[in-house]
Automatic annotation (TrEMBL):
Ranges of residues in domain MurNAc-LAA: 105-259
Species this chain originates from: Acidithiobacillus caldus (strain ATCC 51756 / DSM 8584 / KU)
Keywords, comma-separated and alphabetical: Hydrolase
GO biological process, one term: peptidoglycan catabolic process
InterPro entries: LysM, LysM_dom_sf, MurNAc-LAA_cat, N-acetylmuramoyl_amidase_3, TAT_signal
The name this protein goes by in its record: N-acetylmuramoyl-L-alanine amidase
Pfam families: Amidase_3, LysM
Amino acid sequence: MSIPSRCDPGRRRFLRGGAAALGLGLAAGLGLGRARAEGLRPVVVCIDPGHGGHDPGCIGAKGLREKDVVLDVALRVGALLEAVPGLQVVYSRRTDVFVPLAQRLQLGIRQRADLFLSIHADAFPERDVRGSSVWILSERGASSSAARWLAQSQNGDFWDSSAALAGSRELHDVLLDLSRSAASSAATRAAQLLLRALAEVEDLHAAQVQKANFVVLRAPNVPSLLVETAFLSNPEEEKRLRDPDFRALLAQSISDAVLAHFVQAPPSDSRWSSARHAIAPGETLSELAARYGVRPNVLRLANGLVSAQLPAWGYLRVPILHA
Ligand SMILES: [Zn+2]
């Protein structure tokens, strides 16, 4: 079976000269399908555990603090993602410290993150309210924050470099709009995957992606999401959030959704790309997942499959790592 011949022609340039490496990588069990890196960068994921230090976030009736739960879930997500080749994880905090919102936002911009993921737990006066929700920036927030970032262009490398390239304020504004709209559609796609993944381990508080003007989501050039994992104000959910097994399950779902997002839409200058795999008779999802170095759930989510059953024919989008 010749895997490179099954690749999407649009991606074939990345595999030029890399066919042997791809074959060798697979034979040696190196994980993701491999091809030549040619100076490509890692995919960067910025993980932002909410609150911290003097800001506990919300507190459950039994005393569980949001800042502790979300840090634990975030570190678990980070550990899962760090184990994936070609992917770099940066954190807004890794300990119980207070980090101002603006600093969290700037981290994503400075790191040129491909995804910024803020992790929280929710609270509501009515104790029976429950479930996960996923948030992206509302357009209104995007506009006002973009204006602010323009006004403070000296604060970010992104604006310095884009302004220098543009050479004019008008072109700079156009670049900003393009960047913001690309980031916004990437955030929407990633948020939908995250909702689908979470729905398999937790009730959804909101079945659709929610929009709000959260400060940490305002980076116009970084696809940014905020996940409210569950309600600490709901005694049952507080109990679940206290359970390390449930936190591990949440982290696995979040990590799977993040990876599925990059299988669907790998950043064009990164070490990740994707290819189309033609399904051969008798192949199984777990077999293909093992071959391409991701969990079956990642391939399933990335390809919109409702079950682990592969269709009898057709193509699967699979990840390729440029090592
Ligand atoms: Zn919070």
